[in-house]
Amino acid sequence: xxxxxxxxxxxxxxxxxxxxxxxxxxxxxxxxxxxxxxxxxxxxxxxxxxxxxxxxxxxxxxxxxxxxxxxxxxxxxxxxxxxxxxxxxxxxxxxxxxxxxxxxxxxxxxxxxxxxxxxxxxx
Length: 123
Known about the structure:
The protein has about 120 residues and is mainly α. Helices cover about 85% and strands about 0% of the residues.
């Protein structure tokens, strides 16, 4: 469990690290970056709190403790068998969004590395 907590913390820190790489891509970063950061934090927090509130509203404590994937149990109880697929699809889309951000920032940092150095190589 300790390693999972460390990995989760490093994953969250990676997002902030990517944010620093992408700052060059923003128009008017002194204005837009704080606004985007605050909006992202507020929206993410709101979604997280509402999701957890709805889990506790619909599921019993025994159902929450008995399952590892609470969202799938929630979807199955609310919508039925389709809910299971809908929640799984939503998780897959979220994972693809994270992969997209990783590819974008990695390629951007690689391009900047080759451009900044004295190699005179641009990709």
